[in-house]
Amino acid sequence: MKSTRYILLAGFLSMIAFTAQAQQWVASWQASPQPVWAKDFAFPTGIPQAIQDATFTHNVMISRGGKRLRLVISNRYGTAPLVVEQTTVRRKIGSAGLTDAPKTATFSGGAAVTIAPGQQAISDPLDMPVADLQQLQIAHYVKAKTALETFHWDGRQQAVFRKGNQTQSPLSVADQVLHHTQARVFLTRIDTENASPACAVAVLGDSITDGNGVPIDSNTRVTDYMADTLRSAGIGVINAGISGARLLGDKMGEHAMARISHDVFDAPGVTTLVLFIGINDISWPGTAFAPTQHMPALSSLQAGYRKLAALAKSKGLRVIGVTLAPFRGALAGTPLDNYYSDQKNRLRLAVNAWIRDVGVFDAVVDADQLLQDRHEATKLDARYDSGDHLHPGPAGNAVLAQAIAGQVRSCR
């Protein structure tokens, strides 16, 4: 009888250990970091050069929920240590913008965190149960004068810098406002703790992935629709899009090969990579963005895709390639009205033919076919066009998301 009790106790302890091991962290939200560019660039950054005794407050919508969460704060492009005195998280409740009480995130047990240049900090697990597609409000307080050198330009959410420590005040409180913005600073990723097996999809892309073209605060990016579709399968989605990003070139962010490790491989639980990038490589040359550059050779673009796909596969990821969408008339009437040309479109078509046929990718989603006008294949279908003839609006993103989600396999 005594030995039987020992066996039962050992079995019980084994069950506890297994249960503990069966939990895993999975990336649930991301805003890929970018270096802040110089004032002479075509677009303003939308953020102050520096802040002091100020709080930055912004909203996010995660993909997968969980019993606990943790935050990742980045100083990737900083040239000096970043000191964040306090960071709070609160859940948004209902559609009226109400929030519950904030909780302070800790780092190694303390509210403040110092992050060396080029590094990031991951918070301690925060006991805050969150649902799938949970909207959160995050506030960061900085006391010392701090240069803002790392950011995410196209956040597509209203955010605000306010005077003093406002980490206990919701975004709806308009007191002491210093600056309104749609960019993001400090926070670069949120992970949630889930029962295993759990996994995530990362979409590495440009402004189409980043959500340019959707209404502010609408959460209608392609990755938002993917998250809604895939959550029933227990799959999270992170957005590794940067507006202006290129496969081969830098400027509004590092080129894809330079950032894939940080933006994709470092994110826990990612098992699928979606590559949806390359239109800016084709279209920037000759515009105000890159007036002296020439269009890349098809072979250069092919080599870039091959390298990314091979590296991702070597890490055990499944890779989905996405063709480049139609863009005739893109950005007409703006300083970038030569973004489109027939020559650039011919290169786009050649890239798409290669993506479809080469066999480099585990699966292909044909955004060109999905989004094109049925009477003029070089143009976006008006139903899917945001209005600038380059970026899909919410309806286009929904169609694209369904197609991509259909190629994602279950967690393993």
UniProtKB/TrEMBL annotation:
<dbReference type="InterPro" id="IPR013830">
    <property type="entry name" value="SGNH_hydro"/>
</dbReference>
<protein>
    <submittedName>
        <fullName>Lysophospholipase L1-like esterase</fullName>
    </submittedName>
</protein>
<dbReference type="Pfam" id="PF13472">
    <property type="entry name" value="Lipase_GDSL_2"/>
</dbReference>
<dbReference type="GO" id="GO:0016788">
    <property type="term" value="F:hydrolase activity, acting on ester bonds"/>
</dbReference>
<feature type="signal peptide">
    <location>
        <begin position="1"/>
        <end position="22"/>
    </location>
</feature>
<dbReference type="InterPro" id="IPR053140">
    <property type="entry name" value="GDSL_Rv0518-like"/>
</dbReference>
<keyword id="KW-0732">Signal</keyword>
<feature type="domain" description="SGNH hydrolase-type esterase">
    <location>
        <begin position="203"/>
        <end position="398"/>
    </location>
</feature>
<dbReference type="InterPro" id="IPR036514">
    <property type="entry name" value="SGNH_hydro_sf"/>
</dbReference>
